[in-house]
């Protein structure tokens, strides 16, 4: 097997407080809060199987990933109070994929935070009423709003 991806390392080794980020897992898929969220509730859904692109997934993992996406999206909707969200995936470096391991972003959306062009990015829509969330903590247990949101997504 190729070198362990960052996601494989996180899923298998659980460094620091990574377990605090986990909101869902089964035999084939793990979902966790993004360490650098675009908005509160930004969640990654990642197969345990390490491949770079969706078409490289085994049929069993692809099926499990689809089911997990629906389950986690429902939990994100419930936890954030919005029923609108993006499900995004990049396949390969030229598409913007930074970690060569299939992963989906579930990004909750609210009125006024949407840009007509994804190229403008969420960052260009920041306002005082819609500030960028802080990076998730590197150590220790989650507390406050972050813990509450994480626990709601966990269900």
From TrEMBL:
<dbReference type="InterPro" id="IPR036265">
    <property type="entry name" value="HIT-like_sf"/>
</dbReference>
<dbReference type="InterPro" id="IPR019808">
    <property type="entry name" value="Histidine_triad_CS"/>
</dbReference>
<feature type="domain" description="HIT">
    <location>
        <begin position="6"/>
        <end position="116"/>
    </location>
</feature>
<dbReference type="GO" id="GO:0009117">
    <property type="term" value="P:nucleotide metabolic process"/>
</dbReference>
<feature type="active site" description="Tele-AMP-histidine intermediate">
    <location>
        <position position="103"/>
    </location>
</feature>
<dbReference type="GO" id="GO:0003824">
    <property type="term" value="F:catalytic activity"/>
</dbReference>
<feature type="region of interest" description="Disordered">
    <location>
        <begin position="123"/>
        <end position="155"/>
    </location>
</feature>
<protein>
    <recommendedName>
        <fullName>HIT domain-containing protein</fullName>
    </recommendedName>
</protein>
<dbReference type="Pfam" id="PF01230">
    <property type="entry name" value="HIT"/>
</dbReference>
<dbReference type="InterPro" id="IPR011146">
    <property type="entry name" value="HIT-like"/>
</dbReference>
<feature type="compositionally biased region" description="Basic and acidic residues">
    <location>
        <begin position="144"/>
        <end position="155"/>
    </location>
</feature>
<dbReference type="InterPro" id="IPR001310">
    <property type="entry name" value="Histidine_triad_HIT"/>
</dbReference>
<feature type="short sequence motif" description="Histidine triad motif">
    <location>
        <begin position="101"/>
        <end position="105"/>
    </location>
</feature>
């Amino acid at each position: 097997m190729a070198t362990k991806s960052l996601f494989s390392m996180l899923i298998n080794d659980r460094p620091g407080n990574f377990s605090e980020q986990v909101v869902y897992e089964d035999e084939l898929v793990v979902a966790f809060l993004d360490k650098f969220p675009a908005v509160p509730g930004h969640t990654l859904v990642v197969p345990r199987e390490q491949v770079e692109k969706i078409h490289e997934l085994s049929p069993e993992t692809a099926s499990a990933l689809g089911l997990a996406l629906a389950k986690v999206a429902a939990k994100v909707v419930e936890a954030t109070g919005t029923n609108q969200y993006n499900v995004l995936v990049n396949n390969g470096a030229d598409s913007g994929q930074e970690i060569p391991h299939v992963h989906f972003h579930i990004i909750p959306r609210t009125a006024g935070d949407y840009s007509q062009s994804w190229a403008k990015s969420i960052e260009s829509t920041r306002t005082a009423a819609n500030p960028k969330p802080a990076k998730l903590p590197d150590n220790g247990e989650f507390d406050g709003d972050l813990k509450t949101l994480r626990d709601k997504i966990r269900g």
